[in-house]
Amino acid sequence: MEGDRLEPAVTIKNIERELICPACKELFTHPLILPCQHSICHKCVKEILFFTLEDSFTDLGSESSSQSSPRIRIHSPSLDRIDRVNRSGWKRNSLTPKTTIFPCPGCRHDVDLGERGINGLFRNFTLETIVERYRQAARAATAIMCDACKPPPQESTKSCMDCSASYCNECFKIHHPWGTVKAQHEYVGPTTNFRPKILMCPEHEMERVNMYCEICRRPVCHLCKLGGSHANHRVTTMSTAYKTLKEKLSKDIEYLISKESQVKGQISELGLLMKETECNGERAKEEASNNFDKLFEVLEERRSAALRAIEASKNLRLEKLQTQIEEYQGLLENNGLVGYAQEVLKETDQSCFVQTAKQLHVRIQKATESLKSFRPAAQTSFEDYVVDITKQEEVLGDLSFYSSGLDVPEINEEKSRMYNKALICWEHIVKEDSADTYILEYRKLNREEENATWQEIEACSKSKVISDLENNSSYAFRVRGYKGSICSPWSREVILHTPAAPVFSFLFDDKCGFNSERLMLNPRRTSVESRAGFPLLLGAERIQVGCYTTLDYIIGDTGITKGKHFWAFHVESYSYLVKVGVASNTKLQEWLHNPRDVTSPRYEQDSGHDSGSEDTCFDSSQPFTLITLGMNKFFIPKAPTAPKDSANRILPMPSCIGICLDCDRGKVGFYDADHMKCLYERQVDCSGTMYPAFALMGSAGIHLEEAITAKYLEYQDDM
C-alpha cells in the first residue's frame, strides 16, 4: 500500500508537536481515543486511573497525594483533586451500569468512559501509524532487521501486516510463495507498527464496525445500533461518514494551504510581538524591582528607627539599674553612705556633729525605706517595643498585580447552595468574562480556631463544586479572578452552612400506595404533583353536606433503620395543603391499605386531628411525624403549653425545606434548608424502618432537591 510507505523525513519531523501525548509528554504509544476526541497513551490512561483511585481510597475527600507515575507529568491543576477523577460508582438502580469518569489532560474536562471504562476505547490506528513513520524518520540510520533470518539477521525490506513480522527479500519469498494464500497478504515498508486490518467493536468483540454514530462521534457495529447503547442514536454508514469527514478535512486543509502567505505574515507579526513582549516584560520586571526596593528602603528605615529606639531604652535602663546598684553598695559596711556615717559618728564636737548629722540622717532614712520596699529602677521587659506586623503581613500576602481593568467577582448567594456538596457560583457585576481563571478559597468557621487556614482551589469557569466539607458546619468563601499574572482583589466573603447530617438520596416510590389517578410523577421520579380530575368531582356529587377529600400519600423508595440523615425538597408556592415528614413501615401500611370514611373530618387520619405532630399525641413518641405546609405558610404544630393564638405558629414557608432524621436519638427536625436553620424538632419512634413521607391535597407540587454533581463536558454535534 503506497499510502503506508515511508514519507520524506523533513515532512514527518515537522509535525512532532501533534504526536506528543498530553500526559507523559512523549511520543504516543498505543494511543486511545477518548470521548472528547483527544488521544492519550494506553499506559497513561491506566496509570492515571490507578494512582488517582489509589489516592482516593487512602484519603477520600481530601487533596490527592503528590504520588504519580515517574512517566506521567500532569500539569493541569484540575487533575490534582480526587473528585475530578473518582466519581465512579453504581447509580440508584442496580441494573444501571457502572460508569468511570476520566480527566482528559488535553482539554482538562471530565469525560465519561462508560460501562466498559478503558476497554471501551478505540485505538487510534491512524495516529499510531503516523507516529511510527516519525520514529522511522528519526532513526533513519537504524535498520529494521528480518524476523525470519538465521543469525546474523539481514536488514528487512518488507513488513507483512497479516503475519505481523518483517522480512528480507529472500525470507519473504520463502514465507509467501506464489500460488498460496500467504501470497495475498498485505505488505508495507519495514515497520514495527502492526495494526489489524479490520477495526473491531470494543463492546462486541466479534463484530466489525460498519456504522458511525453521529451523536457519540465514534464507529459502532450493527449490534450497538440494534440493542446496545446506541439504539436510539442517529447513525450513518461508514462510507458516508468517511466521505463526509474526508471532504471536510480536505476542504479545511486546502483553505489553510491557500492562506499560507497570510499565515507567514501572522508568524512575522507574532515574532515582533514576542520581541515587544520580551522588552515590556523586562521593563515590568525593572519597575517591580524598583517598587520592591522602595519597600525594602521603607522597611530598612523603620527597622533602623526601631532598633535605635530599643537601643536607647536599653542604655537608659542599664544606667538606672547601675546607679541603683551603686546606691545599694553604699549601704554595705565600710562602704559609701554607711562608711561615711560611721566616720561622722566619731565626731566629738556636738555643734559640728549636729550640723553634719541632720542631712546624713535624712539620707539614711531614705535608704532604710528603700530596703523595706525594694523595687528595681527599670523594667527588664521590652513588651512595649514589640513590632506588630499582623496587618502588614496580610497586606503583603495579598500583594499582587492589581489592575483597575479587572473586575472583582462577586459570589452569587442565590445560585450557590450547600447539599451533598457545595456549589459556589460567582459573576462579574460590571464586565463579563474579564478573568481567565479564578482562585476560590474557603475555610471552616471554628470558634476554637479563629484564624483557620484558607484552602484554595482553581476554577476555569464561574462555578466550582467542593466535596470535602464537614456536616453541620459553617464555611466562609471568597474568590478572585486572574488574567495572566494580574489578579483582582478578593470578593466579599460569603458564609454558607452545610446540612446537619449526611444527605440521604431517594426517589419517589411509584409502587407502594401510589395513586396514579390524582398524583403525577415526572419520569425521573424527583417531582410529584397532585391533580384534581373526574374521580374527585364524582365523589363530591354523592355528598350533599360537604366534601372532605383525602390526602394522597407518596413515600420515598428507600427506608432508614439507623444513623442520621438529611434530605431537602421544594414545595410549590401555589400548593394548597401539603404534609411532609417521616413515618414507619407499619404506620404506612395502616394509612395506605385501610382507607377510612371520606365524609368525616374527625375520623380522617389525614385531617391533622390524629397526627403525631398535633396536640392529642404531642407528648407521646409516635412512629410518624408530619407537619403542615400550604398557602405559602409553614405551620408549627401545637404544643400543650403553646399560646392559643395560632398566628405565633405560622411562619413564611422557606423556598427549600429540609428534614433531619436521627434514628439513634429518636428525633426529627424540620429546617429552612436555604439557611440551615432548624424551625421545629420533636421526638419520634424509630424502632421500625422509617421512610420519607409526603401527602398532598388539592393543587400542590413537591420537588426533591437534586444532588450536586460536577458538570461534565457536553459535546456538540459536528456532523
Q: Descriptors for this entry?
A:
disordered N terminus, metal-binding, disordered C terminus, 28% helix, single chain, flat, alpha+beta, seven-stranded antiparallel sheet, 719 residues
What does this structure look like?
Strand 6 and strand 7 form a beta hairpin. The chain has 13 helices and 33 strands. The protein has about 725 residues and is an alpha+beta fold. The strands form eight sheets. A seven-stranded antiparallel β-sheet has the order 21-22-33-24-29-30-31, with no helix packed on it.
List the helices and strands and how they pair.
Elements (H helix, E strand, L loop, with lengths): L8 H5 L17 E3 L5 E3 H17 L23 H4 L15 E3 L6 E3 L9 E2 L1 H14 L19 E3 L4 E3 L1 H7 L11 E2 L22 E3 L4 E3 L1 H6 L7 E3 H21 L1 H70 L6 H9 L5 H23 L17 H8 L11 E3 L5 E2 L3 E7 L8 E8 L10 E5 L3 E4 L7 E10 L2 E2 L6 E4 L21 E3 L5 E4 L3 H8 L10 E4 L8 E8 L5 E8 H9 L30 E7 L2 E3 L14 E3 L4 E6 L4 E6 L4 E7 L6 E8 L2 E5 L15
Antiparallel strand pairs: 1-2, 1-5, 3-4, 6-7, 6-8, 9-10, 9-11, 12-14, 13-14, 14-17, 15-16, 15-18, 18-19, 18-20, 21-22, 22-33, 23-32, 24-29, 24-33, 25-26, 25-32, 26-27, 27-28, 29-30, 30-31
